[in-house]
Amino acid sequence: xxxxxxxxxxxxxxxxxxxxxxxxxxxxxxxxxxxxxxxxxxxxxxxxxxxxxxxxxxxxxxxxxxxxxxxxxxxxxxxxxxxxxxxxxxxxxxxxxxxxxxxxxxxxxxxxxxxxxxxxxxxxxxxxxxxxxxxxxxxxxxxxxxxxxxxxxxxxxxxxxxxxxxxxxxxxxxxxxxxxxxxxxxxxxxxxxxxxxxxxxxxxxxxxxxxxxxxxxxxxxxxxxxxxxxxxxxxxxxxxxxxxxxxxxxxxxxxxxxxxxxxxxxxxxxxxxxxxxxxxxxxxxxxxxxxxxxxxxxxxxxxxxxxxxxxxxxxxxxxxxxxxxxxxxxxxxxxxxxxxxxxxxxxxxxxxxxxxxxxxxxxxxxxxxxxxxxxxxxxxxxxxxxxxxxxxxxxxxxxxxxxxxxxxxxxxxxxxxxxxxxxxxxxxxxxxxxxxxxxxxxxxxxxxxxxxxxxxxxxxxxxxxxxxxxxxxxxxxxxxxxxxxxxxxxxxxxxxxxxxxxxxxxxxxxxxxxxxxxxxxxxxxxxxxxxxxxxxxxxxxxxxxxxxxxxxxxxxxxxxxxxxxxxxxxxxxxxxxxxxxxxxxxxxxxxxxxxxxxxxxxxxxxxxxxxxxxxxxxxxxxxxxxxxxxxxxxxxxxxxxxxxxxxxxxxxxxxxxxxxxxxxxxxxxxxxxxxxxxxxxxxxxxxxxxxxxxxxxxxxxxxxxxxxxxxxxxxxxxxxxxxxxxxxxxxxxxxxxxxxxxxxxxxxxxxxxxxxxxxxxxxxxxxxxxxxxxxxxxxxxxxxxxxxxxxxxxxxxxxxxxxxxxxxxxxxxxxxxxxxxxxxxxxxxxxxxxxxxxxxxxxxxxxxxxxxxxxxxxxxxxxxxxxxxxxxxxxxxxxxxxxxxxxxxxxxxxxxxxxxxxxxxxxxxxxxxxxxxxxxxxxxx
Length: 925
Description:
It is built from 34 helices and 22 strands. The protein is α+β, with helices and mostly antiparallel strands. The N and C termini lie far apart (about 70 Å).
């Protein structure tokens, strides 16, 4: 096996200077060449950090972001229309339209089939100021050409037909109902509706139920024709693309769309300055309490936004945040959170607290308000500001290394006024001072600008004047803006199993198996996936809760660092890391850069080897766990899933795989002691048996040295022995579970399967389930339940098969309105029966093969996912050649083989059905 050549070190100052001059010369010549070969009618506007903006004659803005390290490409179209643009009776129209344009056009009757065939990850989202549509494909000329043709066609030729509206409105209503189940969503919607008296930011994006159900199709069509036009859109193409060729294709397909003659209405409603506290009270079924405080803030483009972002982190971060310290650490609440809306016009920021029923809501509210509005009296320290800035800037820098994510994220900045605000906001955050943070806190987070309390007359007028930003002001801010130097581009990497295998080296460090896949990435990005295996069936009996808490306590402090100091060090090293553990293993996931990877591995080693188990953090974790468990008592999804797990449980109480009821888990958490947790760690943690995979930009010798230092001599107290899974037939049941006052219901179905993933039938089952319920919108289940019958917003199926034991499951789920319970179950059963009776057609199978293969390729382009695969294969004793063999077998399948396998294993009379919802209320209507 070969490895990638090491990067040459540039130690001489003259070498660096020569390289820099040469790079500038190349970039200048490239820019000159591009500007002089632009297609007719296209104007180059500006370029910042590898992203270049062009303008077509019809008004379409185009952003191109070439990144040869990504073997994918992302096409994203942002329309500058959102819920803000809706009129009376049209609430939710922008979001409903987002659904409708997926219904096709005369040229594309079934676009979902094309997405699936090409292995695309596609979706759309709607917000206050914009709607966007995006798809990520394996990079190829054919896929890019198709995506651009499709998006250009979707812009002006979508059906928006009456027949589609009749089915889709109920799907959107189901999505609306799922939000009605969520106390957080309900509270946020009510808060915004109270905070905004006139501006449409006060309307929930999903809309009012009556508008969703009754909107006439002609109004929807008019809305579409008005806003879905090139002069109101921004096209982003990112990934492995040739910029010149892509620009020609864009001009060919989008340039053919004429500039509309209509003139978009200018919106002129400003929200008046709030002149006193406002209060919201929501009384609904539930098991935990919430209190929130919200405040009007400046638009996302305003210079204050940077300081507000830093202030948000100072207040709400865990564990350094003031709210966490004043509420969670003092046991007055279980969790704190925040949510900021960075919008085109003056936005909103929310701070919230979740607490158990036994805690005082009044006390929590008082502390929340005192902490949030006390920033002026207790200004942020330099340490707090620098910590928050480091965290925010780290996440921005890491995100900029993924062109597919940048392409989508740009939508939010486009809707705020200009895509370059992404970089300008980053630059502003770098310059934020403690005085900046104190000033914005004093200006915005004040009593008269608050939504949570009662109105109180006052003689002293102290109101928050919230500024706005005009388009001209945004243009002035960004005039001549250049940004930072372009990030290191990386290499073109082939994600085929053969190439991955040829580039991967494997070795052992003590009991740790290591897989290294070096490749030059954009921004020198690197990912690590680590697993440490421990224990056996006998030694792990009755220790599930202690195991869970031991894993969750790891990042809450070491012998050398507090929880906050760990987070500060990760920020300094520009790293994200998750370290945890469960009943049979400990694990770690790392995302960082080449330069910092060895140091981050050592820090993760410290977290794993030297946990301090602080008593205060243990008590905080117990409160958080109890709150989360108590919240599961009434949520339909949790109720249904827990009942399903209990029904299929075959293990005795105390076994590591035993499915515990919620009440059992609550009792165990209450009885758990810190000594129990420490004892579990002492009995099991070590590196005598484990795996570590590293994928990305790194120096192999440095990574190996760091791993040897951390794990080489760390022995496990007890030997590891894998706990074998066991297949058992479980009698089918069909059960309805009542969850009162919940607008959305949850459906689950499960069937146990006796096979392993090396079974001859396994490839056929993969593709059969892909067609049935795993391929997204064009799967048979979602096609029936959502596209045809309009019963469910989200539904699908999953095939899960063990690599080592003859155990597997076929699982399906759906959300729906309780009154549609009988219809949904009947439709699901009909689709299973149709599959078993008629089978899959040759056309379905051919399309599924193509879509599934491309989706596998997309997965291998994601370094984090690839590291997880290599880690797992080290445990199984496999190489990535396993993927190539499975893909070969899938491509060789005939429809008859797939149909035969599905009929052999999917037996309807053995499927268990569990439904949770407010069925009593729906029957009473």
